[in-house]
Amino acid sequence: MTMKFGLYAPIPMAAVGSPEISRAVAESLKPLPPGETDAQFNLGVDLLLAADEVGFDLALFAERHLGHDMSGWVNASALASRLKHIRALVAVHPGLWDPVMIAKMAASLDRICPGRMAINIVNGWFDQEFEMFGGKVLHGEDRYRRTIEFIEILRGLWREDTFSFSGEHYHVEKGQLLLKPASPTPPEIFSVSTSDRGRDFIAETCDWWFVEFPKDAESTDEVMRSLEASIADMNRRTAQTGRKVHYALNPFLALGTSAEAAFDATIKQIFAYESDPDTRKIERRMIPATRGGCMGRPEDIRRQVQRFEDMGLELLLLKLIPSVENIRAIGAEIIAPLRA
Questions:
Q1: pLDDT tens by residue, the chain, 340 residues
Q2: Under 8 Å between Cβ of 87 and 51
Q3: How far apart (Å, rounded) are the C-alpha atoms in residues 200 and 53?
Q4: Any bridge partners for residue 249, and if so which?
């Protein structure tokens, strides 16, 4: 079994059903009591240390600037140095960051968690957030041209002693990084995109593609057929470019006596700590992910993981209830048996 397993570093945008995250949100606009640390950071330490111990391979540090969430880069830098195995995947929004600065920050983090950092490119949709933090959301072809330039500059600066670039959105004259990434192989680029042009962008530029769940699928079989079609489509595109793209997926995983029991317990846990949960987070991100076949008895979930691997998926970035107990159970019931 070569499947890799990841999880989200717990922040309000990415976590559901967590008393610590609810506390962090409640305290976010007030000074902390003397000597205390933010609750989402404390949970991140406990959760990721446990995940590192039981065999998880990657943690995604998502980024929401206009929210209660801690900065992804700050969070990753503070947490990743404590990890021995987990890879730090940090979200980046082109249009909010200068690519030369990100190249330096990425090289720095890659040396802190030696050779174990990667970048998750998020093209962005939240106009208010971009404008408030000094950026601009682009749409259509423009967003991909900007992101392609952004990635080209990152890779050029990581690879070359001196790198110049003149494009539509960025200009670099004799750029230098006097601090290179830890590994001769530069940090990999992850992204998600569903449009036809977006899939071309993945095939031409990225190392990993997060294949999206179909929003209208009502069953796991429908999900599997959609995923198979998406992977076949991307394989055709990469065959034309001569590149290799790796495939990842974001299923929601919950252990239980049955799929129905696991789902019901998850919903109950969410509403126990979030009386008014973010509907976008629940309806658009969580619910489709629960139809991926990773809810219920451990043996059924392990069989579904094998189906995913047979399909060509190499990474499952799990959505889950973020507790240390749950992480340890997933390690014992899912990861360890699959790797035995």
A1: 689 999 999 999 889 899 999 999 999 999 999 999 999 999 999 999 999 999 999 999 998 888 899 999 999 999 999 999 999 999 999 988 999 999 999 999 999 999 999 999 998 666 777 777 777 777 778 889 999 999 999 999 999 999 999 999 999 999 999 999 999 999 999 999 989 999 999 999 999 999 998 888 889 999 999 999 999 999 999 999 999 999 999 999 999 999 999 999 998 888 888 766 666 666 666 788 899 999 999 999 999 999 999 999 999 999 999 999 999 999 999 999 999 9
A2: no
A3: 37
A4: 316
Helix axes 39-54, 19-27, angle to 10 degrees: 150
Q: Could you write out the three-class secondary structure of 190-251?
A: EECCCCHHHHHHHHHHCCEEECCCCCCCCCHHHHHHHHHHHHHHHHHHHHHHCCCCEEEECC
| Domain ranges (residues) in the chain | 4-339
CA distance 8 to 319: 7
Q: Quote the CA–CA distance of 264 and 331 in Å, as a whole number.
A: 22
Round to whole Å and give the CA distance between 327 and 316.
14
Residue with tokens 């034309």: 240
> Residue 132 CA to chain centroid, in angstroms?
24
Q: Concatenated DSSP letters for 37-67? A: --HHHHHHHHHHHHHHHHT--EEEE---SSS
Architecture of domain 4-339: Alpha-Beta Barrel (3.20)
Element (DSSP H or E) covering residue 100: helix 99-112
